[in-house]
Amino acid sequence: MNKELILRLSKYKRLLFKLKALGLERVFSNNLGDAIGVTPSLVRKDFSVLSLPGNKRGGYDIDMLIEKLDVVLGRDKPQEVIVAGCGRIGTALMQYEEFRTEGIKIIAGFDIAPENVSKTSGVPIYHVREMKEFVRKNDTRVGIIAVPDSEAAATLELMIDSGIRGILNFASIELRINQRGEIDKEEPACTIHNINICLELEHLFYQVNMVNETE
Amino acid sequence: MNKELILRLSKYKRLLFKLKALGLERVFSNNLGDAIGVTPSLVRKDFSVLSLPGNKRGGYDIDMLIEKLDVVLGRDKPQEVIVAGCGRIGTALMQYEEFRTEGIKIIAGFDIAPENVSKTSGVPIYHVREMKEFVRKNDTRVGIIAVPDSEAAATLELMIDSGIRGILNFASIELRINQRGEIDKEEPACTIHNINICLELEHLFYQVNMVNETE
DNA sequence: AAGTTGTTGTGATTCAAATAACAACAAAAA
DNA sequence: TTTTTGTTGTTATTTGAATCACAACAACTT
Fold first, then answer.
1. Closest residue of A to B69, CA-based?
2. How many Å apart are CA B11 and CA B199, to the nearest integer?
3. Of A18, A97, A26, the residue nearest A55 (C-alpha)
4. For the stretch B89-121, what's the b/e string if a residue is b when 16 or more beta carbons lie within 10 angstroms of its beta carbon?
5. Interface contact flag, A172 B98, Cβ < 8 Å
6. Regarding beta strands A26-27 and B142-145, do their DSSP bridges make them parallel or antiparallel, or are they unpaired?
7. Does residue A184 have a pLDDT over 90?
8. pTM above the 0.90 mark?
């Protein structure tokens, strides 16, 4: 399944919640399309491939969509995350308000110097060496890397070794599995998403400077 | 020019710096491809469309590539950014080490309560109402939105009104120009990149839960 | 009941980007 | 000098997602 598609599904669902809160019960493909910025056609096709039925005239039932999207997106399972690196970014994430409203919970932070980390967020902070044990006990699947670049690769290895299966990486070096073919025994695959703030900004600089360009 | 392409160009350049630091002078398309995870063919095609010449046998000259990529990516111009919202995320960004190494500089932060913001980062903090004046004076092009969701839309409007042309949005609502057709006089276009951490995490949850699925 | 409207569902089409394939050719080797 | 090698540059092909177009048909209207 396509990355863009999954992203759209999450957007649909978020939007559907808002519509439901407003008291609506049904939506049309063009409502959804307008709202998330895609064509109605694509909305219908998305629902089509997921076998989410609509009514030939009355559009789609919001409750039905939410329910089925929850299943497709696996939202019945708990959405628990750990954070490696409790510096500026790590602690900012631990206090990130929007996680709560989305049902995402940071259940632990790990650092090489946990005694120096402020505990104001209420998230328990452990030493990195306890990660493997913690992940095993809690069956944690997803982790965030918020360590300095220099530690990123080692942290990746630790997380994979601990059994983490999905990683959101904030270090500004691109992490990939099989960097040099070392990590690929028969362990279950691990998905990595890199959020590279520098790269995003550079992209913006490129765009804003290219106004007079031939495109 | 394609977004993915631009991203690749930035990656090439970053990699080329590292190779240069290691003492290398030339690279082959397969070196670059392996390193950033694309096919050598694509590397050659990228350079081809930019008219970056290689030698039929000896590969590409690293210095030449860096120099020309700098021009293409507009890296000769200063890379200055302002930040709106000096909460957890905003201040974390102000102290983000990696910006320095990438030549990106946060030149000001704006908040509705600047007196409550710690000044430890060395970045001057102003009241939001001074943004427009500041942007005009400094000819700032790029801004980061790090305000709560509830303030995001208003901040977007303020930035556009101030003359900002590229925006990196950390609020977890997707910002777009022409949300309802209001903002589109004849002002120069403004590019928005949304970094939606919740969405990224949801995507990961989806992936890690879909192991037994038919894909 | 018959006609009209409006929306879905999907097969066909378009489009763009990635990949593959290979001719051209510079450098090294013989 | 001639041959071999290895890499570029570019054209052709493949791939896959988004868009288009329209038949099917449920609900409303008269």
1. A206
2. 24
3. A26
4. bbbbbbebebbeebebebebbbbeebeebeeeb
5. yes
6. unpaired
7. no
8. yes
